[in-house]
Amino acid sequence: MDFVYVFHGEGARFAAAVYLTVEDARVDIADKRLSGLLTAYPVGQTVFDHVLEAGLFAGKEGAEPRYIQRFSSAHLEHYHFKDGALV
């Protein structure tokens, strides 16, 4: 499974950056002293489908579009940053 690392800045409504590796993201976030959340997202499928296939979530197969489009999971690899530092 391929993943990209998406950075959502603190207070932002939309993503601020997408990286191919967590290392590239950490360097850029540190250099710019950014605060926010860096999350690994699966490429080519929704987070909902990813956690279902991985056996990390059950009970909502056939869920409504509104549910799927808003779905997130704490099972995704993620990192919190404050002023560029990993916290």
Protein topology:
Elements: E1 3-9, E2 17-19, H1 22-32, E3 36-42, H2 47-53, H3 65-69, E4 78-82, E5 85-86
Antiparallel strand pairs: 1-2, 1-3, 3-4, 4-5
Describe this structure in words.
It is a single chain. By secondary structure, the protein is α+β, with helices and mostly antiparallel strands. Helix content is 26%, strand content 28%. It is built from three helices and five strands. The chain has helices spanning 22-32, 47-53, 65-69; strands at residues 3-9, 17-19, 36-42, 78-82, 85-86. Strands 2-1-3-4-5 form a five-stranded antiparallel β-sheet, with helices on one face. A hairpin with a 2-residue loop joins strand 4 and strand 5 (85-86). The longest helix is centred in the N-terminal third of the chain and has 11 residues, at 22-32. It is elongated. The relative contact order is 0.23.
